[in-house]
């Protein structure tokens, strides 16, 4: 019954939230309206799951600024957690396949999400260039899962460099986010929710003001090491 309840709310929330986004999103250049609706949708999903979570924010994070949030990826809950709990207008670089989903994909496009073709390097680079233009022009932030896919058993996968190049070129601070225990609540390749409490740790911003693209590895290591430190601290994984 719980799974049916979640699927019902997922379908209902997509229809209700996507319709105004599709109709009016293209007029909302700053994505203030669509950002609020997207966060509402994500919180609706979280509410329907009844998952317990604790959000811990760094005191150095400012709501008026833009950031490139970098998050580990362990569960299907990561996206509604990140989108719903960060008080920012977020745009994603999302794989092109998601844009083919009726209603949901149309809403993603209207909300300013950027299609990326991971199998075509030239098109992927063009998508990153487009994201940089939007980040410079509008007061967006972006949320990236640099592992590229969900990991298993809290093992942090190698990070891809594209998001860090984006942050340096856009001159936006990188903020490491660590999600703890989401994989225990909703494991990979499972639909069964389990008891547990998820922690979301939003760390100190890492400045990119003095960095050049050649410094991408240094920036990547700083971010990854902070997430790994949090995982080791709360999970005890090595």
Fold and architecture overview:
The structure is a single chain. The protein has helices at 2-24, 32-49, 78-85, 104-110, 121-137, 162-170, 182-185, 216-235; strands spanning 52-57, 68-71, 90-91, 93-95, 114-116, 141-144, 174-180, 197-202. With 238 residues, the protein is an alpha/beta fold. Helix 1 (2-24) runs antiparallel to helix 2 (32-49), helix 2 crosses helix 3 (78-85) and helix 5 packs parallel to helix 6. Strand 4, helix 4 (104-110) and strand 5 form a beta-alpha-beta unit. It has a six-stranded mixed β-sheet with strand order 1-8-7-2-6-3, with helices on both faces. It has a two-stranded parallel ribbon with strand order 4-5. The protein has one domain: Glycerol-3-phosphate (1)-acyltransferase, CATH 3.40.1130. It contains eight helices and eight strands. The longest helix has 23 residues, at 2-24.
Secondary-structure blueprint:
Elements: H1 2-24, H2 32-49, E1 52-57, E2 68-71, H3 78-85, E3 90-91, E4 93-95, H4 104-110, E5 114-116, H5 121-137, E6 141-144, H6 162-170, E7 174-180, H7 182-185, E8 197-202, H8 216-235
Parallel strand pairs: 1-8, 2-6, 2-7, 3-6, 4-5
Antiparallel strand pairs: 7-8
